[in-house]
Write a structure and sequence with these properties.
By secondary structure, this protein is an alpha/beta fold. It is built from eight helices and seven strands. The chain has a seven-stranded mixed sheet. Helix 7 packs across helix 8.
Length: 166
């Protein structure tokens, strides 16, 4: 179960807003985290706490197909992103690095910036602890859930290889 404060954004938050292109020569997650969301929310990095949740309306993660964006979000401490919809490449990149994403219009429509939510990734349940309300997102298929639980594709692959004695 994840629990955190919501940082809410609008539509079409692109990968340049998540991690500005001027930092793409950086690959260290901790360094990327220092610049997460800085062009659209200058105080995000100072306010975000481990476990907090990013929420947005539609097409979150549009733009360039860079893994830096979900990596910066995860390294900044956000436990997941909830939106009405995601850009498909961002969605896949997030799953590959173990950042959970949920699509749920009702949760987005009934949650405000600063609310506290509890998120059960396994069952797709989102509870707004500040305003009340429980919302259902579609849970992940088993394979994708395994990737997220493992911490991403690389960790998943390492565990599979270790299990086979490779």
């Amino acid at each position: 179960m994840l629990k955190g404060k919501v940082f809410k954004y609008g539509a079409n938050v692109d990968t340049d807003a998540i991690i500005p292109a001027r930092y793409l020569n950086v690959s260290e997650p901790a360094e990327l985290a220092k610049h997460c969301m800085e062009d659209i929310d200058t105080g995000f990095v100072k306010r975000v706490q481990p476990g907090d949740v990013i929420m947005a309306t539609t097409n979150f993660g549009c733009g360039s197909s860079r893994e830096h964006a979900p990596l910066a979000i995860k390294a900044a401490g956000a436990s997941c992103v909830i939106a009405i919809s995601f850009a498909r490449i961002f969605f896949r990149n997030a799953i590959n690095i173990g950042l959970p994403l949920l699509e749920c219009r009702e949760a987005v429509d009934n949650t405000e910036d600063g609310d506290t939510v509890e998120v059960d990734i396994t069952n797709g349940k989102i509870k707004n602890k500040t305003r009340g309300g429980e919302f259902d997102a579609k849970p992940y298929p088993d394979f994708m859930a395994e990737l997220i639980d493992a911490g991403g594709l690389i960790e998943y692959t390492k565990k599979r290889l270790e299990a086979k004695g490779a």
